Amino acid sequence: MPKKKTSLTKEQKLELYYLLKLTRAVEETVVRLYKQGRVVGGVYLSRGMEAASVGAAYALERDDILFPIHRDTGAHLAKGQSPKAIFLQYLGRADSPSRGRDPGIHFSDRSLNVVGNISHLGSMIPVAVGAAMAMKLAGKKNVSLNFIGEGGSNIGDFHEGLNLAAVQKAPFILVVENNQFAYSTPTHLEYACENIVDRAVGYGIPGELVDGTDVVVVYEAVKKAVERARRGEGPTLIEAKMMRLTGHSAHDDAKYVPEELKKQWEQKDPILVMRRRLEAEGLLDEKVEKEIDQRIEREIEEAVEQALASPLPKPEEAAEGVYA
Amino acid sequence: MPKKKTSLTKEQKLELYYLLKLTRAVEETVVRLYKQGRVVGGVYLSRGMEAASVGAAYALERDDILFPIHRDTGAHLAKGQSPKAIFLQYLGRADSPSRGRDPGIHFSDRSLNVVGNISHLGSMIPVAVGAAMAMKLAGKKNVSLNFIGEGGSNIGDFHEGLNLAAVQKAPFILVVENNQFAYSTPTHLEYACENIVDRAVGYGIPGELVDGTDVVVVYEAVKKAVERARRGEGPTLIEAKMMRLTGHSAHDDAKYVPEELKKQWEQKDPILVMRRRLEAEGLLDEKVEKEIDQRIEREIEEAVEQALASPLPKPEEAAEGVYA
Amino acid sequence: MAVLTYLQAISEGMREEMRRDESVVLLGEDIGVYGGAFKVTKGFIDEFGPKRVIDTPISESAIVGAAVGMALYGFRPIAEIQFADFITVAYNQIVQNAATIHYRYGFPVPIVVRAPSGAGVHGGPFHSQNPEALFTHVPGLKVVAPSTPADAKGLLKAAVRDDNPVLYFEHKYLYRRIKGEVPEDDDFTVPIGVADVKRPGRDATVITYGSTVHTALQAAEDLSAEGAEVEVLDLRTLRPYDEQAILDSVGRTNRVLVLHEASKTGGVGAEIAAFITENAFEKLDAPVMRLGGLDTPVPYSPPLEEYWLPSKERVVGALRRLLEY
Amino acid sequence: MAVLTYLQAISEGMREEMRRDESVVLLGEDIGVYGGAFKVTKGFIDEFGPKRVIDTPISESAIVGAAVGMALYGFRPIAEIQFADFITVAYNQIVQNAATIHYRYGFPVPIVVRAPSGAGVHGGPFHSQNPEALFTHVPGLKVVAPSTPADAKGLLKAAVRDDNPVLYFEHKYLYRRIKGEVPEDDDFTVPIGVADVKRPGRDATVITYGSTVHTALQAAEDLSAEGAEVEVLDLRTLRPYDEQAILDSVGRTNRVLVLHEASKTGGVGAEIAAFITENAFEKLDAPVMRLGGLDTPVPYSPPLEEYWLPSKERVVGALRRLLEY
Ligand SMILES: Cc1ncc(C[n+]2csc(CCOP(=O)(O)OP(=O)(O)O)c2C)c(N)n1
Ligand SMILES: Cc1ncc(C[n+]2csc(CCOP(=O)(O)OP(=O)(O)O)c2C)c(N)n1
Ligand SMILES: [Mg+2]
Ligand SMILES: [Mg+2]
Question: Closest partner residue to B160 among D25, D62, D107, by Cβ?
């Protein structure tokens, strides 16, 4: 696979690698907590998809607005979120970002310009477009970025949102995380086009298909789209192809995925892909790898400990805060 | 303009011409009744758009299902509806097809396989797709056909409906009546793609752009799509370009349309276009023209008379028939 | 005070708020050059420009969704739904996104969704709906429905200044038919959540809102000639409704008819009647009665539509039964 | 009679109807090979094939719209919404298209929309909703919500055989927690529009449906130990609701608590309470009380969610107040 030239520094590349591994570690920790019966709700994992989530969010500045969806642990982390906040969310604690109201990675962080999602797939697209319109109208150079699964891309709001963004030339980027399945549904039952990105022409916007397992490739594509948006040239649709290497959620064994397919895609595990790249570029050796792993281990351990020590919300709080 | 070869017989071509003129005459009569204060609700006209509406519906057999929308007077007529039914509808009479419940050309006719629309633009698309799925599942060779304005094509159901139809390979045809405006909104504020038909690739289905002022061209394109659908090859998206030569409704003077544009498109009045074609093919002379006009005049006169003599519904009927 | 039509009052309310606050923007179909299907935004694009008067594609879900997104980042959008009937296309964005964000994340969502509603104009099943009760069950939304020009303006301005999603149902039958004095003070607002006694009385109360306030006033006038003094309490806000004003009125008259144009079953009237029974049972000298439109879609043909509507005669009839109870 | 879980009963009801009538088809997400998110359609694709068990893209509006289209042309589709919360995406198709076609054109629209609803499973704001009251205001729809396996099966079969659009809210908390005897007769149905006394009593009635039938039964059990006999009337159908059964029960007990899991304000309970007041005022020895979920979205964290739910303790408390009134 020929590598594109990239503008990333050595430090940034190593940071991306760290973020991929951190994402994996955070999710594995969540699964552990889940199996211990400490996570009360569902767990949706991004194993195999970290490159898209991390790479896309990494292309944003702090004042750019991120709208992650149900598997975007990596995007939260790449935008600067702490593992602790994520654990607090899953554990439903009082001082979690949503104060125990929303599950898992469905949460916002005003200081990082992250807006959490509702579960209704696609519903955040028009909202993210509105945020992009706000940036433009306020004369800011910031963009907004939202994700959607290839499954969710078949819902009406995908169409309405992208069309509005295109007409408004809103600084908006939509990243399709095409992981081959929507829950149990294979792509041929989801859509009949070649690629989801084929839909870009129907909105008169550029579309780019990328290898969603390579964090650098995703980063570069999104970066280009971000720059385009900052120049006032409007939205971009990006499709990142990859594979969900777990079940739909922690309770799904994904028997409906052919073993062969799984195996095949295991070779394209985003962490492996990046490791190979870093090694080829001479940026990674055992020592660096170990440092990263130890850092992550330390961070996770500390975060879990703090999260588990945090109190649950007081019952009566449930009644508060419906209105501003 | 080079004419394609067509499979239409002389009689059929003259019938199409008659239907174009009948559509125009029916609508002009409705406007007259409206100005007399006899039509209680709004009036939405298809002047300039008759070719698409008539041509598309003319490509259907009786057992094919037609889903006309708010300007498709011509489609109703081409599917075999009587002018009287249409007048009864506008006049809200007891024996109108909707028994006075729905206005204007929003009505169904089971015997003709015509299903009326709700006003919500695009909402009939999934319903028409469902009807197509029903035909396929029942092993019938029939198709369903729905229209949508270029404005309505930006609503979510357009996307969901076409995508579902494509995945299901449903015998479905969607005809986009692109008449340059959605109410007062010009196309550049509606969408940013070149043509609405560019969206076909995003569903993996064929798309065809046609001159919507030429009834024969529309007929041929739709006919091809119908045959394709009958062969089990799935849906087609057709875009017919034309111009709405009136206001959005009878009370709209359409000042927002540049005079020049109007003038330009007047030259492409579907009746003129067809007259030129017929004359060029030697199928039309003054005598035939006069016969057609007289037939229409007679039919309209009779229909209006009968419609006006029909009773209004009894008030108490309003409470009946919510449930089957 | 200027005398304005109901429509002019809405228009003026929006214009004043847009002059006062640059963050107020409009989104909707045909609201720009055309000035809106009902001309409520006539001239707005000239004064405020296309950046603040945004003509959108036909995509109500995106309109409301984008309004939410703009509201999260510093703007106070007013989204226009061309006819209230079409609000169901944007339903998900309103009830799932707009309504829940503050509870979940603590972000205010200051949007107004304007929707011309109501029957009586021969619009048929899809240009006549009164969809307010489809929203009053949803925590996080505020719902208002003015009946007079002054309330229309005051509630519009209050809605724009409110930090929550407010659904503003303006009754299109009243647009040009109802005129009234409207305060010219730039800071005149009608507080959300406060009802108004449109006519005082002692024998019975009609609790209502929107178009049927006028029906109730006419019925009260008729009955007054017979010696019965009927109070007309205009809710103005349907969620959160004015509990105290309702209890006060029940305390005065001890007899209540809840009236609205929307279909009776499952309507706003059910909530009001249930609330009264629950909280003022001892004050009631008669059952709380309800009157609404028929439990059917709104039919097109005039005899059917008239029969569908809760007429003055029906209101008088219900009030007589209530008074004689 | 076989003993089945609530989930098995729904499954069996569908299977029987599909065997009986070839025109019954299923549409939904992951209902085929996977057997549905909750495994309600497990094995169906093997028995009935992918033509009748249609795995759709994620597009609820198209799912319901297509069901309507199929219903117009000879089929009786059952559309599954994966979680009831997502039904708002299909809202427009349900309330505007499905609900109005018969009134406007006289065509029956025999569709069933199945929607797993309800809280208590730590699903958070978007996997816990009880959206029934968003539909009970809409003429043309039927809305059912079973509480037991027998009712679940009987109502499912009745819904499939009904010529109208029926919304079928199955409570996912009950899926595997509630077991019961279920008639095996192929033609066993529970008629739509008929309520059921789940426990007879003389001192007060709890009118309820769905999950809170069980809460009410537990509360009645507790109070029985104190000597108060509480009747539990399970509405089963929320529109059209069983007026006579309600009036009969009020006649017997003269005291009513209306209870549901959905948020209280604007809920189904409002309509029931208003109906009772209007039609059985003289029979009431106390105000009709209401109890429901909090007027907020359903929060995720267990202490919050528990507080949100109308607990047995709260039901007992309300009943005590009612009995002491
Ligand atoms: C409107 C809507 N319908 C159904 C669901 C239930 N659901 C949650 S995730 C999911 C699959 C999503 O597939 P895709 O969009 O491809 O994202 P992935 O999970 O594969 O990352 C489904 C059906 C939902 N959340 N929203
Ligand atoms: C969902 C929805 N939004 C708004 C409207 C109001 N409306 C009726 S026709 C129309 C313009 C439609 O434009 P287009 O689809 O291009 O069809 P045309 O009228 O030009 O034939 C609008 C906005 C509607 N009927 N439905
Ligand atoms: Mg996927
Ligand atoms: Mg148009």
Answer: D62
Q: How confident is the model at residue B91 (pLDDT cuts 50, 70, 90)?
A: very high
Q: What pLDDT sits at residue C84?
A: 98
CB-based contact (8 Å) between C133 and chain D?
A: yes
Say which CATH topology domain A30-310 has: Rossmann fold (3.40.50)
Map residue A209 onto helix, strand or coil: strand
Predicted pLDDT at A2: 44
How far, CA to CA in Å, does B250 sit from each of A73, B33, B213, B246?
A: 55, 11, 21, 8
The span from the first CA to the last CA of chain A, in angstroms, equals 52
Does the pTM surpass 0.80? The reply is yes
For residue D288, give every residue at least 6 positions away whose Cβ sits within 8 Å of its Cβ, in sequence order, or none.
Answer: C274, C277, C278, D256, D257, D258, D272, D273, D276, D277
| Residue ranges, chain A, pLDDT below 70 | 1-6
Share of chain C above pLDDT 90, in %: 100
Do D276 and D243 touch, CB atoms closer than 8 A? no
Name the closest residue on chain C to residue B148, using Cα atoms: C58
- Length of chain B measured in residues: 324
The pick from A183, A184, A195, A196 for probing ligand 1's pocket by mutation, whose C-beta has the most ligand atoms within 8 angstroms, reads A183
Can you say whether the dihedral through the CA atoms of D40, D42, D47, D49 is positive or negative? positive
Q: Give the helix, strand, coil percentages of chain A, each rounded to 5.
A: 50, 10, 40
Residues D78, D79, D80, D83: what is their CA dihedral angle, to the nearest 10 degrees?
-130
Give the gap in angstroms from C-alpha B93 to the nearest C-alpha of chain A: 37
Give the nearest ligand 1 atom to A155 CA: 1
Query: CA separation (Å) from C181 to A134, B322, C90, C162, D272?
Result: 36, 42, 34, 24, 40
Distance linking the first and last C-alpha atoms of chain D: 42
Q: Cα(C252)–Cα(D23) distance, rounded to whole angstroms?
A: 60
Q: Which two tokens stand for residue A146?
A: 């939202």
Mean per-residue pLDDT over chain D, rounded: 98
Q: Measured between CA atoms, how close is C100 to chain A, in angstroms?
A: 7
Are C103 and A321 a contacting pair at CB < 8 A? yes
> Structural domains in chain D?
2-182 (3.40.50.970), 196-324 (3.40.50.920)
Three-class DSSP category at A201: helix
Q: Does A190 touch chain D (CB under 8 A)?
A: yes
Residue C87 and residue C94 in contact, taking contact as beta carbons nearer than 8 Å? yes
Q: What are phi and psi of C256, to 5 degrees?
A: -135, 135
Residue to mutate among B164, B167, B169, B320, with most D CBs inside 10 A, is B164
The answer to whether D271 contacts C270, with C-beta atoms less than 8 Å apart, is yes
Q: Which residue has the tokens 């397992």?
A: A213
Q: Which of C58, C59, C89 gets mutated to test ligand 2 (max ligand atoms within 8 A of its CB)?
A: C58
The CA distance from D17 to D162, in Å, is 12
Share of chain B above pLDDT 70, in %: 98
Is residue B93 within 8 A of residue B156, CB to CB? The reply is: no
Q: Which residue of B has its CA nearest to A203?
A: B193
Question: Does residue A244 carry a catalytic annotation?
Answer: yes
Q: Is the CB of C80 under 6 A from ligand 2?
A: no
Interchain pair A157, B156: CB under 8 A: yes
Contacts of C74 in chain A (CB under 8 A): 134, 138
The C-alpha of D56 sits at a distance from chain A's nearest C-alpha, in angstroms, of 7
Check: CB of residue D161 under 8 Å from CB of residue D112. no
Closest-lying ligand to the alpha carbon of A69? 1
C258 close to C288: Cβ distance less than 8 angstroms: yes
Q: Tokens standing for D67?
A: 């069901």
Count C/D contacts: CB-CB distance under 8 Å.
Answer: 138
